[in-house]
Structure prediction request, 196 residues.
Amino acid sequence: MKRHNTHALSDVLDQLASVIDGDYITFDEVIDKLGRRSFASLMLVFALICTSPASAIPGVTTMVAVIVFILTVQMIAGRKSVWLPDFITRRQLSAAKLEKGIAWLRRPVRFVERFVKVRLTFVFDPPWFWVPLILILCLTIFMPFMEVIPASGSIASAVIAIFAAGLLTRDGALVMASLFALLAVPIAVWQFGFAG
Prediction:
């Protein structure tokens, strides 16, 4: 998606919903639908999947972490088209759980869209843009370990989703918000995993 309008996030959900056909869908079908040049859309979708009820599927947090890691590395390298290994693209998701997740995400996405606009675009230029990319890269390395701590993977994915939403809509304020949210992840993990 190249347009940066206030409904860009809902458009991504609509595209994802249009992929659902049958009992299962593959990650490759999602990638083909959203476009192999749309890093922001793909990062947003997979991060949102991990913040939705679909995250209850064992291994989803780890798989999303691997996907976002690979996408981030390719963005840092300046790659123009997305590449993912076969073991990821062949993976299937339950269509029913994905549909439930999309419905669950509609309200928070519409809420965020009320505040989205093009601003602070300097954060998308090097070297500033490398800062959130490197921090997200580090976050994905720890996400597989969060599988054992309830809700922590969803919290980390929400931070990634905020960053991706900012990138998709060219809203630098959202990108900066994701950096502040990233600082809160260790505190949240401690709260959910150890203080509970």
Remarks:
- The mean pLDDT is 85.
- The longest helix spans residues 172-195.
- The longest strand covers residues 24-26.
- DSSP finds nine helices and two strands in the chain.
